[in-house]
Amino acid sequence: MSESVPLSVLPSSESTRTALESCLRQLKCHFTWDLVEPGKSLDDFEDEVCDATEFQNDEFRATVFNLLAYIEYRRGRREAALQHLRQAEELIQREHPDQAETRSLVTWGNYAWVYYHLGGHADARMYVDKVRQVCEKSRSPYRMESPALDFEEGWARLQCGGRHHHKRAKVCFEKALEKEPKNPEFASGLAIASYRLDTWPLSQNPIDPLRRAIRLNPDNQYAKVLLALKLQKMNEEGEGDRLVEEALKGAPCATDVLCGAAKLYRRKGAVDKAIELLRKALEGMPNNASLHWHIGCLYRTKVLEIQDTGKNEMCGKREKLQEATGQAVHHLKRVDEANADFPCVCSYLACLYAQVGQYDHAEHYFQKEFSKALSPGDRQVLHLRYGNFQLYQMKSEDKAIHHFIQGVKIDLESKEKEKMKNKLEKIAYTRLSKNEADSIALHLLAFLQELSRDTRPAEENPERHLDSGSFLCSASFAEE
User: Fold this and answer.
1) Dihedral through CA 380, CA 384, CA 387, CA 393, nearest 10?
2) Three-class SS state of 148
3) Which residues pair with 420 in a beta bridge?
4) Contact 91, 61 (CB under 8 A)
5) Dihedral (C-alpha) 335, 59, 254, 292: value to the nearest 10 degrees?
6) What distance in Å separates the CA atoms of residue 342 and residue 22, rounded to the nearest whole number?
7) Which of 59, 158, 254, 314 is the most exposed place for a label (fewest CB within 10 A)?
8) pLDDT value, residue 62
């Protein structure tokens, strides 16, 4: 049987089913791009994709619908997948009527795969034939080299996150730009991929791609924000500040622009400005856990900043401290209630509740954090915070010692580990100053000496807030 013969005119049989499967594997679409990396759960993949797509504005929505269709299919929700594909097809027809056939190839390929797995082989063959009719002049009847297809794959991979996908996306956009070097969409894709890869070894230097994207499309406000963030790291803040102001003026309600600008102001220490921008983004996405997380963390930063002021200055800031604490609790609780996977949410809440003397709530969130599967580093941080809570708020030195020891035993060198060792030394020498034969103190020193093989006396380095049990000095934040 020749592959050039339309599958839809052939009778259904085992041989035509085998031929159909062979054709499906040749299609360029989400089902042949291996988007879910080995070892990554579908839940993690979906969270990453949905978080990325939710922050986009109206650009490339057809690409997003195709990706959502793929996720719905993997979830077993095949009718929902078909609905997303219909939305993608309608958008392409409306927004790119002059390129509708080429731009629809990925969507038709996804249609074919979904119908095939639904058992609708006739419909699957129909979409495979639609692809063949467009690709028949290429060397392979079911795939073709096209900048539009490279762009589709590149943009899909950008949504999936991770170094592997970003590297593949960069290659796709570079390939597309070789054919159409002045295409602003392709240039924007390359700029974003280069920016994200710049955090990995072998710097990608995204400056030139970002400037190219802006030159080809002066209204690309998101590229301006990314360039500003990169310039800020290079200590060229003057141009960066101008770009951000320009981007906010050009797209005052664009979520990706608002979030990027907030990141720049947060780095500058302008916490209130960052909160203002994220609150504006939250107006259009009131249930977005990521926004609540970042806002909550910024208010937590305000709490820490207020705590760092002297006691004399604190008198006039008590109301601001209570306001910042309340806002931090509100937003972080929204994150916890959404069961979103963000680090240390419960221990942050626990420390904030300890700050305002609500110890039952603090205990609840500490225990909730302990119940989670934590990395060694996160577990060390948790033992330090809970040990501080027991030592300073609950006045339980025994429980504090237990948790500091548990944290120190974790096989990971970190600043938290050093702080817990210092705290244990401080406790031991304080006890010995009262009773030279204190068995707990002697056991602590023996434990620390065995751990570090260092028999030197502890240096005088009292921890911040060590002797303070007042409201002003939140002992639960002492590790910050």
Assistant:
1) -150
2) helix
3) none
4) yes
5) 0
6) 42
7) 59
8) 82
Query: What local confidence, expressed as pLDDT, does residue 268 receive?
Result: 93
- pLDDT score of 278 more than 50: yes
The residue assigned the tokens 């204190």 is: 438
pLDDT given at position 307: 84
pTM of the shown model: 0.79
Enter the tokens of residue 274. 């960052």
Average pLDDT over residues 107-129: 93
- DSSP letter for each residue of 349-415: HHHHHHHTT-HHHHHHHHHHHHTS---HHHHHHHHHHHHHIIIIIS--HHHHHHHHHHHHHSS---H
Domains and CATH numbers, the chain: 7-144 (1.25.40.10), 151-254 (1.25.40.10), 372-477 (1.25.40.10)
Name the DSSP letter for residue 97. Answer: G
Measured CA to CA, the distance from residue 425 to residue 443 in angstroms comes to 11
Confidence class for position 1, pLDDT limits 50, 70, 90: very low
Query: 358-379: per-residue pLDDT in tens?
Result: 999 999 999 999 999 999 999 9
Give the tens place of pLDDT for each residue, 346-357: 999 999 999 899
Q: CB–CB of 274/291 below 8 Å? A: no
Residues 6+ apart with CB under 8 A from 348: 296, 297, 300, 328, 332
257 falls in which pLDDT band (50, 70, 90)?
very high
Q: How open is the CA angle 244-248-252, to the nearest 5 degrees?
A: 165
Q: How many residues does the chain have?
A: 480
User: What is the C-alpha R_g of the chain?
Assistant: 28
CA distance 426 to 419: 10
Residue 346 is inside which H or E element, if any?
A: helix 345-355
Residues 374 and 380: their CA atoms lie apart, in Å, by 9
Percentage of the chain with pLDDT > 90?
60
Minimal CA–CA distance to 166: which of 178, 155, 176, 175?
A: 155
Element (H, E) at 434: helix 415-434
pLDDT in tens, 98-113: 888 888 999 999 999 9
Residue 284, number of CB atoms within 10 A of its CB: 13
Q: Cβ distance 444 to 427 under 8 Å?
A: yes
Biggest distance spanned by C-alpha atoms of the chain: 95
3-state secondary structure at position 11: coil
- Distance, in Å, from the CA atom of 403 to the CA atom of 409, rounded to the nearest integer, reads 10
Helix %, strand %, coil % of the chain (to 5): 70, 0, 25
Contacts of 281 (CB under 8 A, 6+ apart): 255, 258, 259, 262, 291
